[in-house]
Amino acid sequence: MIYADYNSTTPCLRDIAERMLDIQCVEFANPGNRASLSGRKARGVIDTAREQLARAVGAHPDELIFTSGATEAANTIIFGVMERLLADRPRILSSAIEHPAVCMPAEHCARAGADWVELPVDSQGRLDLDALRENLTRPTALVCVMAANNETGVLQDLGEIVRLSHAAGALVFSDMTQMLGKMPFNVHTDGIDFACFSAHKCYGPKGVGAMYKRRGLALSPLIRGGGQEEGLRSGTENVAGIAGFGMAADKAAREVHSRKAQLQRLTKQLESQVLRHLPGVVIQSGDVDRLPGTSMFSLPGIRGKWLAQLPGIIASSGSACASLQGKPSHVLRSMGVDPETAMRSVRISLGTPSTEADIREIATQLITGGQKLS
Ligand code: PLP
Description:
The protein has 374 residues and is α/β, with parallel strands linked by helices.
């Protein structure tokens, strides 16, 4: 089987997993026990990981809070900003193509009394900046726009989004889960206020992520208890996971340019082969800047599930959440793709283990499967 679902998750690197095993079984002290040497060592492991992640994303270490993943980070940011303001019916704007980790908490805030507006995107999945401008004419607390979409890879014009939002007094939260190790970025240069990250998208372990919160911004915690992570995420820290995330982020930052070049080269090979042999195939967000390694292929008029025609390939038809619910992807629907085509699209997402031989096999199976169903 050829794995081509790296946007969904990546394998944890062996040296990272081995280090984590040592932490779990040998250096297992509670970092909260500052009175003991082993507890202070565990605290040091967390501090190192925070510094590694900070360097990778361009933040100060004290601006990062470790969580159980990007979903928890996004929930903390959205609820944390909105909770303080609910009495004033705060306004929250989010792009129509956000991951459920962002749109579901936003929807929940709307049920609790917030004024939530989903901003449209164009046929390439780019945020409609006129709609943003128009919606910012009313006082807005938070604007949520993901940097890179997990299904199509479309990249947003964060600079302009931040400029417009800040000019209107709104804070900006960008889901950067798919960026780490694929595209160079810096949260300070980008000017965003909040971001979320996840270790398992960049060859680290599952179940650990982080939230970036710009210095000086206030946030109510989602999880309360013993006051760990500056009181913003209580509960004994996942020391092994955090250490693994730090190592994965460090490697991602050091290799980002070579990984980006590799993914761009393989993506180009795959797309040119498929386009050559399958007339009518559409690469979603294909006309704009995209995350390297992500290709969402659609074949309008196809009769049957394309994915089922790829027996040797592990790919997906969109986000795991949409597939679980058997629903067409809300990302493609927001871009104007009809429900049938959306259900029958195939996302190929590549990773650092992907090879040219993989690309030839994926292309062959996509082409033969597509021809059979056309
Ligand atoms: N945001 C995006 C863009 C993602 O791709 C994912 C992963 O599925 C998430 C958020 C959620 O990440 P996690 O699995 O760490 O909660």
